[in-house]
Each structure stands twice: as structure tokens, then as C-alpha cells.
Amino acid sequence: MMIKQIPYKEFHRLLLNQGLRVAIGPFNVCVQTAYAPLAEQLYKLYCHYRLVQDEIAEFHVRIVTERLYKNPFRQNVRFLLDGQSPFNSFPPEQALAVLEWGINLAIAVRVNHLLILHSAVVEKNGHAILFPAWPGSGKTTLCTVLCYRGFRLLSDEFGLMDPRRRLFLPIPRLMPLKNESIAVIRSYLPEIVMGQSIPNTQKGTVAHVRPPEQSLLQSEHTAKAKWIIFPKWIAGSPAKIEAISDSEAFMLLASNAFNYEVLGATGFMAVADLIRSCDCYKLVYSDFDNVMDVLHKLINEA
Amino acid sequence: MRPDLPPHCQTLLQGLINPARLIDYSDSHWELLIRLARRVKLLGRLAFLVKEHGFWNQLPPRIASQLSSGLVQAEKLQQLNRWELNRILWALNDFDTSIIVLKGVAYGLAQIPYAAGRLSVDLDLLVPKADLADIESLLMVKGWRHLPLSAYDEHYYRVWSHEIPPLIHAERETEVDIHHTLIPVTSRLKIDTKLLFDAAIPVKDTTISVLSPVDMVIHCAVNLFQNNEIANDLRDLLDLHDLLVFFSMQEIDFWIRLTDRANQLKLARIVYYGLYFSQSIFKTPVPEEIYNRLHARPGRLNMWLMHRLVPLALFPQHPDKPALSALLARLLLYLRSHMIRMPFYILLPHLFYKTVRKLQFKKQK
Q: Domains, chain A, ranges and CATH?
């Protein structure tokens, strides 16, 4: 059952009491909060996610409010994972960003049965395309455009790979656009649903894009990767794609993964095999129409 | 006498001492068990037990993946610790000293059962006090450094503690704790470390040693009941149980030698607590008459209190419903641990300083 199929009252009651259990890719997350503004945002942005009330949840997270002792008239929100607080408290308007950030952290530090690359992943014609993160890549922005223009979203953040079957697992999450990207996407994709802009977070202003319903419906369909494309956004630059060597791609990918080191030999074999089976490119772009042409050309030639 | 444990503690304890029963655990029991085991660093251990009992393939898939994640992490940390030890030995290659490896890495070297599933975060070493300054400066020359400490913490380590401030190599992340004795200098208890070095067992094909079996057991008890605050230390009590079971099977007169050594080192009281709680919680087969061989034992009132407080602190709190009684037990044991570690004239300013710092820290947040 999808979240939008239950009334808001029921949704709110679950968040308040035993917790709302929601499937996020291969994981089930149990979310609790008594902070009503967060519940309203979640109901809107999580509406296409699947409810899983009777399954085991891997992550138990909570957003609690607390009074500041130096200013008892103000409240802050705090993220709890299994009752433990991994970071500071934040102003209440950042609740959604803190929750999303906390869930990412929980996945990144606890999951070692899968290899977690730091990469956006989309799928086209049954093949996964990786867009690994590197500074200035704008991978979330690019990923948002692609998944609302005919590609299926697997993730904007985690390249979640089963190291034995060499498959990528979808883990579609809200996509946090930052700063200038927010206005850019609002004008390029006026139809999409986005949360309110949250100013002054650690990463500047953030607004969360609701992932496409189609991508969430297919979030159990794994895919093998065929292309690894390292994107870079450069103002005014025409879209240009250029092959890079396997060794360079390997170093870029492995040195920027979440748990590559922890997995040891398993991680090395998986990344080596992945690079061997993929074509690797660097991509420079500024215009979305432009970049889409380049990608379609690449895909259709294959 | 078995302490009365709340239901969630029973879920964890039964999983640890009766792993065969895990096969009957419902999904919701498993979910809770994983959360509790993770909290007290026992996920890797649980994974090991399931594999040993041969029902890994019958686990709910979401449980199997979490256990395997825990095991991968434990194995990685052990590898990092062994590599750090390798680097330390390389750095000290030309320096003639004796190094005793302690805790997790030592359990692996001594081939204690289940050592492979243990989550060991740091590398702990014991060196002769006379060599400490040389070892520290040699390591600093070869790239290890101290994390920045406040002047107070620096003083705490240098003057009152049984170890120097932790060292970390610039290129790696493993913390190295170098001890010169096993109990803080400020405690009333003193250990003649020469006795430990004399009895230490060399590790085959290396220049390092591990503590002798009885000393290893005593150190484990000392850490738990003298040096630490007991909160969430169930893993350490399980270490003690593992050591007792393993060594008592290997050596016929182990219990006699253990009690003799405890008396000789004047640590009989601490060993009494260790034996008592290991037996009452994990059913360690401690022979009844052995307790009487210990020259010092806790008084009745003390025992009555500890019997009620220790299990409440050792076991993790229920992650969704923390109990006030367990919070209180933890607070009392926290105070106890400080009172037995330092005399009042140090303790009061110390607790004051820590409280002020905690408040300042909160304010910054």
C-alpha cells in the first residue's frame, strides 16, 4: 500500500505512535515524530512510497523537539537513530533536511553487505548509468532532470551495488537541490513537486524534490551498469563527452565511495569488474537539452 | 542467583547463551535483538553464533544482511588493528623493549574462541614505564601524533591515568592506547607490573607477548569493575566469560591459579565481582568453592547493591523505552567508578570540570 492511500490522520497517527514504516529501496525505515509541520511535509513528499507495517525495519529514526535552555521560548529539532543522537540539534524549519540527512548517514555507516558508491544512478533501456559525485558535478540536479525526462531514478546519492551479483539496487530518495539549482529546476521542470526551500542549512538553501512515482513503483527492479559518466557543470560550456581510461575511472570511483575500504577484497573485485564491464566518460555540460542529446546519442549508439 | 532482567534484556541474553533458540525468534524479536546487539557491540558475535549453529540460511533476509554488515565491520576493524600493530613493531624495530598486547587484538593472538567476531575499536598495548617516554617519542618521529587535548585532559592522562593520550598515525585512523600499568595511578589499588611482564606469554614468531591466562582474565575484570563505568559493557563481561570457559578447559588447575594470582596482585575483590557476574548472567561454570579462596570479598551491602545495579547498566536500554531505573543504576555506577579511581581531592574538581565542560559543549551545540 502506498502512503497516499491512507488518510493524513492515519499517517500522522503512525508517526506519533508505533512509527511509520516505509520501504526506501532495499531497506525499511521506521520513522517517528511528534513534530506536526514535518508530518505534513512528509505526507506530501513521501506519498508514492510503500508502507510496510508488518516487515522488519533496519533503521529506526526519530525527529524530536527540544527546548533550548538558553532560550526556553525556542525549540530545536534533533535526529535520533535507535535513540542515539549522532549530531547537533537544528532549528525546527530544517526538520526535513535533518531527517533525510540522518537516514543517509545511517545507511552510510551501517550497511556493509552492499558496496556503496557515492554516485547518482539512473536507468534507461534496462541499463544503469552511474554519475559519480565529485566536486562541482551537480549530480543531484542532473539526476533530477534525467529522471523527469524519461530515465528511471535508482538514486541521486548511493550507488548501491550487490557485490556478488554485480547489480545496482534502486534506493530512490527525495532529491535535495541546493542553492541556485532550486530556481533552475523550478523553471526547467515546472510540473514537479518540491518541498519548501529551507534556508541556512549546512549546505546552504535546500529544497527536496519528490521522486517520480514510476521510479518508486519499480524500486525492486535491479539493473546492471553499462556506463559510468563523471559529470561536471561549467557555466556556458557546450555538452562534451570524452572517454577516460579504466584506471582513471577506477581511482575516481573507489576513492570516493562510502564503504569501499571496509569491504576490502570484495569491494576491489566488485569495482574492478564494474569498470571492466562499463564504458567510462567525462562529461562537461551547462544546458540540460544539450546534455540530453549527448546522452541519447550515446545510448542509441550502443 | 540470576538477576531479574527486563524482557528486552532476556531477548538479548537468550540469543547469546542459547543461540539454538534464535531459530524460533519472531520478526519483531529479531528486529529488537539486532538493535540491542548493535548497541553493545555484539552484532559480529551474534553473526558468528548463527553461523556456528548452522541456520544462517533460515534467517529472515533483512536480519542476515544486518548481521553480515556487522561481521564485515568487526573483521575490518580487526584487520586495521593488526596492521597498526605491525606498523608499531616496524617503528620500534631497533628499540629493545617488551610489548604486551592487550584486549581484542590479544584475544585474537591467543586464539580465544569468538575473538574473530569481536568489535575492537582501538589497539591497546602495555609497555614498561621506564621505556614509555622513548617509545612515545620514537612513534612521534615516525608519524604518530596525539589528537588535540585540553590542558586539563593532558594533565589527566599524564599524571593520573594508566595510559598516555591516544596516538593516531597521520595516514591512518586506528587509535593506539599505550598503557604503562592496568589501573589509573590515582586508584588505591596498585599493580606490580613487573609480575605481569615476567609471566607474559611470547607470541610465536613475533617480538610481542600477551598476558598469561590468569592475568588476562584479571585484566578483563579490572577493566570492567575498576576502570570503566559498566554502562553498555555487556561485551566486556562476555569477553570475561569466554576467557574463563576457554582457559578452565585448557588448564586443570586454572581456578586455583586464578584465585592465587588475584590474591597476590591484591585484586581479589575485583575478581570476585567478575566471577560472580559472569556466572550469574552467562552461567559460567565457576566452581562454588573458588569464591572462598579469594582473600578479599565485597561486603553484603555492597553485593546487594551491585547485584541490583550492575545488570541494569551492563545491558543496553530498550531503544524506544529507556527505563528510569536503568538510568539511575548507570548514574550510581558512574559515581562509584570515579570514587574508586581517584581520591576525593581529585574527584570533586574532576567531576566539576567535566560537568562544566559538558554544559559548555551543549551550549555550543
A: 3-110 (no CATH), 115-173+211-301 (3.90.228.20)
